[in-house]
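Shipment paperwork, digital attachment
Item: protein structure file
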Amino acid sequence: MPPYPPESNQIEDSIYSKSLKVASYLLRGLVPASQRKRDYIKWLRFFKSRFIRLLLLAGPAFAAPAPQVTFYREIAPIIYRNCSPCHKPGESTPFSLLTYEDVKRHAHQIADVTKRRYMPPWPPEAGYGDFVEERRLTAAQIRLIQEWVQQGALAGSSTSSPQETAAEPEWKLGKPDLILHVQQPYHLGADGPEVFWNFVIPVPLSSMRWVKAVEIRPGAGRVFHHASLLVDRAGSARRNEKRRARASREWT
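Attachment content:
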């Protein structure tokens, strides 16, 4: 008679076939009643441990489905804060991201560029300081966008949506204390390579001032991408500007 329950973890026969053998032994009275009781307890523990293991293995199959991610509830706040300020008419971006239809049309592209952290553009490396108005998506926000696209880019209820087309003030940072203008406009051709142009802007101040913020208002936003500001203490930029203006007059 084979030992039962098995003393090792290796099971040669199925649990079902062994249970039939045990039932057969018990019915035939081949073992004493005391031995049958001990064996019954052992087999009960054996089946209980295997049943719990089966439940643990099958647990993921019975797990609750992932919650639905919708545009208006989870995605719109991310897009409107980090993408829409540039992705709108009149800016240098190739398309708008102001409505659900806009975002759904580019959903797969958005999922790709945000996963690679190509968009939104934010050059500073993470972990080297905190910046005001930082436009770096968190890992949780990127994961939400991925899940939203994988689930079919659902709209959801628009009642929880933030404002899509809130009117922007004339000055985003508030009315400035000083407004400076370029002296000569630059006319960019309709085609050709990228152009990096230096504008020399005089600052009519006679004493030192602390600068809290700077806002740049280009005349043609669609052809303007970014600006770098330099303080010309030596006056070399102003001298170059005069020579360039003189050369331009000579050619004309």
